[in-house]
Amino acid sequence: MFADLPRNDLGSTITAQIANLLRPVHARCDWYPSNTLSSTHHPSLAIAEHAAPSTQLHPRPRSRYPNPMSPVPLSLEGKVALITGGSRGIGAATVRLFREAGARVAFSYRSARETAESLAASCGGPDACRAFQADLASPEDGRALVRSAIEAFGRLDILVANHGVWPPHDAPIAELPESQWRTTLAVNLDSVYGLIQAAVAQFQAQSSPGHVVLISSTAGQRGEAFHADYAAGKGALISLTKGLATELAPHGIQVNCVAPGWVRTDMSASTLDNPGSRDRVLQAIPLGRPADPIEIAGPILFLCTPLAGFITGEIVNVNGGAVLVG
Fold this sequence. Notes:
Layout: H1 7-21, E1 80-83, H2 89-100, E2 104-109, H3 113-122, E3 129-133, H4 139-153, E4 158-161, H5 178-206, E5 210-215, H6 219-222, H7 228-248, E6 253-260, H8 269-272, H9 275-283, H10 293-303, E7 315-318, H11 322-325
Parallel strand pairs: 1-2, 1-4, 2-3, 4-5, 5-6, 6-7
Helix pairs in contact: 2-10, 4-5, 5-7
């Protein structure tokens, strides 16, 4: 499709094609422009019209990918998602993006009630987007939140476990208080267990496919000195992703993980706003900057669409290359 283009137009054309693919299908929030894509926008999609049908030696369940001539399926129309920690940062960006993709969204917040209610209102109000207060410090907190989401919207198709705590002060292991260890793991791991347990039970009761996306960290893969509690919890989420992916695949439930690095959010502000610590952080990121929350929300959305229908048990690194050099 690019053969007849002048050389200096080729790069801009490819860039435009990729940008179009990443735009949401529907406008659902007062935040992002609408755009519906089709093979008219993407001549490459028309290639599939002439492709020979594949031969299946072993019958398998059909892909949920739609007709190749239909709009690019970055759509969650008809789905209900629960996103934890949704009032700010990565969570808020994910709430907005999922609404843009057509999902109805329930999300949790811990204390920022006014911010959460404003976000829910801007994304369609109670018929489309609802905020629930939840401390998420125990398995039962997780199960209760899932029940609230189901009561609000009647079903559940997607769980994004995004909430978490990161104690910003350094704590050498010899001095790490047991109370901090238990609090960090209670929020970052124990509540996730309760969320997954209740969400999977609902997926199975509906006899429908489901998606679980856990949010880990580079710290869960390479550790983080002086933050052993945080690294241990995030590392556990990676193991949980891999174990549950094989367990739940026969039920049509996909389990994946997104592992961000440094992201400019309220939680990281104390580090990124300090010139000394900021310089150390940026030196360890090959792309030379922290991520914006939307750059994490995008891969989360992708993993819940038909385009990711053959992906499960994966750890998707979205950290500017930091995990490669740390």
